[in-house]
């Protein structure tokens, strides 16, 4: 990328950041508004059904998931959104909304390498989300759905930068240049996005800090521990070789969460099940 072109991109990019005018595709912006609406403490199930009904893709996915064996073992067909949201629960619906929005973003009309990179980011986000959910459920008392949300959003800064770089793709002549830019800006843009979306501080802190997290030994186990662990274990999950993990090189968060060679295979198997449920729901 030529210096003048790089300067133009960065100038536009930083202006968006400082003005908080984040430019996301309508699909993801809409699903984040839905997530926010669904988080209202006094919202009724009828209101939830109306909100979901305003987004056709999300409506179809929610109804589809409510008729899967995992959530509906009775096999009694669910045909309306009110019944579907009662069956699934608000937390699951919120996470489905974000998963659907990110999938739509990843499937935007990108060219060449951008399409491959977006798809890779989306799939990794789903894996980390499933891992975070399973770790939280088995090793902590915190909400598994909150952990899943942190996993879904942990690379949101990369999604944003790739999406914006796509608008300037003629000036990016090297993937190395693009990924250097992403590495430099990922944390700050991610923090700005989550603040703009009014995502809870605990999730925002985990997303911003998990890459370089070093908690004191006596520190209370946090969502950041869970996300650090999920992010690290993703490579183990992809290669399906937990027995080859060098336990002398793992992040301290795994030890703090009491994850070891004996219980890791069971966590991986449970993650595979959770991931298949999510993928089946939003395909």
From TrEMBL:
This is HDOD domain-containing protein. It comes from the Bacteria. It comes from Undibacterium curvum. SUPFAM superfamilies: HD-domain/PDEase-like. The lineage of its organism: Bacteria, Pseudomonadati, Pseudomonadota, Betaproteobacteria, Burkholderiales. Residues 24-213 form the HDOD domain.
């Amino acid at each position: 990328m030529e210096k003048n072109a790089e300067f133009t991109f960065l100038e536009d990019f930083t202006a968006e950041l400082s003005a908080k005018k984040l430019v996301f595709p309508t699909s993801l912006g809409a699903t984040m508004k839905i997530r926010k609406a669904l988080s209202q403490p006094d919202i009724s199930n009828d209101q939830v059904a109306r909100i979901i009904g305003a987004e056709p893709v999300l409506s179809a996915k929610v109804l589809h998931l409510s008729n899967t064996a995992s959530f509906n073992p009775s096999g009694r067909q669910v045909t309306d959104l009110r019944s579907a949201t009662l069956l699934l629960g608000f937390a699951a619906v919120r996470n489905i909304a974000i998963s659907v929005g990110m999938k739509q973003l990843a499937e935007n009309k990108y060219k060449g390498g951008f399409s491959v990179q977006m798809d890779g980011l989306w799939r990794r986000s789903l894996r980390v989300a499933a891992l975070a959910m399973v770790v939280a459920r088995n090793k902590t008392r915190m909400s598994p759905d909150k952990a899943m949300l942190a996993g879904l959003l942990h690379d949101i800064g990369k999604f944003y930068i790739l999406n914006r770089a796509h608008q300037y793709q003629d000036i990016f002549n090297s993937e190395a240049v693009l990924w250097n830019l992403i590495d430099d800006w990922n944390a700050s843009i991610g923090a700005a996005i989550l603040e703009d979306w009014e995502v809870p501080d605990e999730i925002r802190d985990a997303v911003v800090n998990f890459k370089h997290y070093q908690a004191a030994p006596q520190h209370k186990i946090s969502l950041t521990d869970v996300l650090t662990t999920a992010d690290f274990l993703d490579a183990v999950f992809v290669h399906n070789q937990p027995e080859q993990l060098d336990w002398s090189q793992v992040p301290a968060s795994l030890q703090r969460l009491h994850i070891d060679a004996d219980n890791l295979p069971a966590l991986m198997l449970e993650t595979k099940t959770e991931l298949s449920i999510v993928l089946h729901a939003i395909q």
